[in-house]
């Protein structure tokens, strides 16, 4: 089920989203002794990471991973892993356990197996998984009309990750598959700006997941998805 929360300012959105993340991570730690969160890359998460990194939590009991990454070196500005190190694994959150998806393989397709083994260290279901959405309707690195999209969307597959070559963006990627994304207790879809609201409305009003892969997350009844939107 999808619910949209709209905020008057991005500051209000970030404050509430971070407070909800902290609540869910604390709940996970109280119940299971550990908690996990999968985060997106791109630009939208930066202020969330900055605020989250300062929250008092038993961070040594928190596992952080990525929903996707670009197949670039971790020193490259396009690397989502670099983004997490720069903005989230700071301050209090320095103590968290981070498990990235990138490996030393030459391509994400060759790296899938090792990435999958790394990911097995992260407690699942994720307590929280945060998604973004591109103007083309991609989420994580599930890209419209991409060759490996069917693999990524296959709910009967036991693959945790798949390589992806987007047609609408540069760089090969590795991404969690849809069944892995939906193996979450809470999914938050973080959107900023009027144009993303229009894209979201289009996604909610149509069914073709090949055209807009984010629909596979919006139109499912396995896990509640909360959209956080502000101008
Ligand atoms: O390429 C990517 O883009 C999306 C959206 O990023 P945003 O900056 O427009 O929010 C992101 O969710 C994904 O993780 C990233 O790899």
From TrEMBL:
List the SUPFAM superfamilies: NagB/RpiA/CoA transferase-like (SSF100950)
Q: In which pathway does it act?
A: Carbohydrate degradation; pentose phosphate pathway; D-ribulose 5-phosphate from D-glucose 6-phosphate (oxidative stage): step 2/3
Q: Name one Pfam family in it.
A: Glucosamine_iso
Q: Which of the seven top EC classes does this enzyme belong to?
A: hydrolase
User: Which chain regions cross the lipid bilayer?
Assistant: none
The job of this chain, per UniProt, is described as: Hydrolysis of 6-phosphogluconolactone to 6-phosphogluconate.
Its family remark reads:
Belongs to the glucosamine/galactosamine-6-phosphate isomerase family. 6-phosphogluconolactonase subfamily.
> Which protein, by its recorded name, is this?
6-phosphogluconolactonase
Q: Which gene encodes it?
A: pgl
